[in-house]
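User: Please fill in residues for this 443-position structure.
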């Protein structure tokens, strides 16, 4: 750790196969889902010893953003309920074909055997992709399941001819027939049995599982003060977002990235190219062909549109996204952090005064933790953003000890990271690990 920083540092556990969700369990252990390992693991926070509580054979996982993803516990876990909720991608057709979908499954934890069993599908056939699955899962204070689904990585890279459907809303018939195709780019709210809550918002005349829409890639969800729901979301080149999620509201994607300010973002709809068709084009992150329709942010609006609480970061028009110092890996130098998770430190708790009533956000690109202070009611972000715990890693998720003195961070097993000094590197300091940063009161 840097000199003067009031935290001790240790590597708690290693050898994890792409950890995705990291959660402190009511049993006093850290629980982690391993995305490509297809297993749920309990980690002893004292010595880092690991035990497998479930290996889920029907998880479909590649080296991409699919696999075993979110995990959630009810508030009364081990004190009236032994339920554990998991979200993961699976193959909906027989091999050798691939029809990648996602599902949410309820398991029962056997405390004596320390295993998960009795899987029950709550919802199946959800959209899934190799990219932007999001896949965060929470049980809210209202005892509802909240789940994030990204835009599937459409309109970019290998999927650049697939349209973004983050603004699309299902019909009543879609809901009746369980056609969830329009659930991409959304947060969902479900009863604990997977059904549609009767008090979910009605959007375009239809009540479904959809709680909010117009999202790109929500890899962080957390509840904060007064039951407020916050998200951390990846932007395209800039404008990573911290959002306050409200029922029935529209967060603008793909028409808006960050604030609706017309700065350094234009919606280029590659799938709508007709002369020539998109299939004849070659995707380029920096040059938009004349046949691809473009629309500035300020040309769009919606009565349900909500702007983010904060962006990381907004830059002016003319910003150079092709910094030659980054070479072929220009994205690692873009003014964004790739926010992979979010957590909340209560106002009456906290490891020290500076973090009370704050959101903590992990970064994939920068291998750092960001602290955003909230106003008293949690309705906005105030003051400067603080960066801590910088290492040459990709931070995937975090968990807090019950006394809020230790921050546990799970790291990716591979990928590109911006180190403390020098060019980006694939040589990660602690791949597939859980790191522990404990407040010492010094410094």
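Assistant: Residues filled in for all 443 positions:
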């Amino acid at each position: 750790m840097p000199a003067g920083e009031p935290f001790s540092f240790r590597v708690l556990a290693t050898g994890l196969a792409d950890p995705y969700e990291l959660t402190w369990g009511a049993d006093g252990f850290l629980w982690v889902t391993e995305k490509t390992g297809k297993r749920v693991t309990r980690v002893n926070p004292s010595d880092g010893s690991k035990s497998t509580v479930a290996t889920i054979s029907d998880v479909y996982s590649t080296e991409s953003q699919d696999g075993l993803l979110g995990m959630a516990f009810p508030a009364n876990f081990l004190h009236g309920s032994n339920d554990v909720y998991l979200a993961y991608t699976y193959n909906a057709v027989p091999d050798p074909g691939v029809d990648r979908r996602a599902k949410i499954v309820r398991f029962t934890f056997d405390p004596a055997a320390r295993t998960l069993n009795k899987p029950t599908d709550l919802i199946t056939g959800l959209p899934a992709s190799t990219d932007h699955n999001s896949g965060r899962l929470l049980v809210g204070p209202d005892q509802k399941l909240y789940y994030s689904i990204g835009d599937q990585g459409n309109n970019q890279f290998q999927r650049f001819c697939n349209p973004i459907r983050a603004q699309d809303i299902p019909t009543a018939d879609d809901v009746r027939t369980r056609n969830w195709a329009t659930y991409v780019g959304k947060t969902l709210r479900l009863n604990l049995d997977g059904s549609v809550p009767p008090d979910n918002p009605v959007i375009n005349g239809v009540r479904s599982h959809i709680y909010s829409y117009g999202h790109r890639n929500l890899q962080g969800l957390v509840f904060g003060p007064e039951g407020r729901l916050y998200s951390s979301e990846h932007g395209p080149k800039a404008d990573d977002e911290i959002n306050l999620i409200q029922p029935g509201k529209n967060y603008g994607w793909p028409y808006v990235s960050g604030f609706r300010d017309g700065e350094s973002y234009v919606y280029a709809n590659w799938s709508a190219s007709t002369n020539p068709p998109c299939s004849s084009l070659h995707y380029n992150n920096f040059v938009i062909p004349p046949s691809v329709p473009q629309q500035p942010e300020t040309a769009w609006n919606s009565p349900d549109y909500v702007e983010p609480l904060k962006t990381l970061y907004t830059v002016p028009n003319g910003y150079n996204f092709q910094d030659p110092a980054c070479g072929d890996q220009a994205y690692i130098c873009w003014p964004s952090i790739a926010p992979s998770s979010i957590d909340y430190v209560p106002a009456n708790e906290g490891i020290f005064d500076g973090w009370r009533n704050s959101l903590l956000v992990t970064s994939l690109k920068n291998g750092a933790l960001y602290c955003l202070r909230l106003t008293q009611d949690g309705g906005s972000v105030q003051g400067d953003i603080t960066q801590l715990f910088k290492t040459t890693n990709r931070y995937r998720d975090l968990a807090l000890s019950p006394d809020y003195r230790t921050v546990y961070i799970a790291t990716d097993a591979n990928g590109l990271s911006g180190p403390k000094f020098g060019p980006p590197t694939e040589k990660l300091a602690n791949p597939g690990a859980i790191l522990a940063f404990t407040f010492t009161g010094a410094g």
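For context: Helices lie at 172-176.
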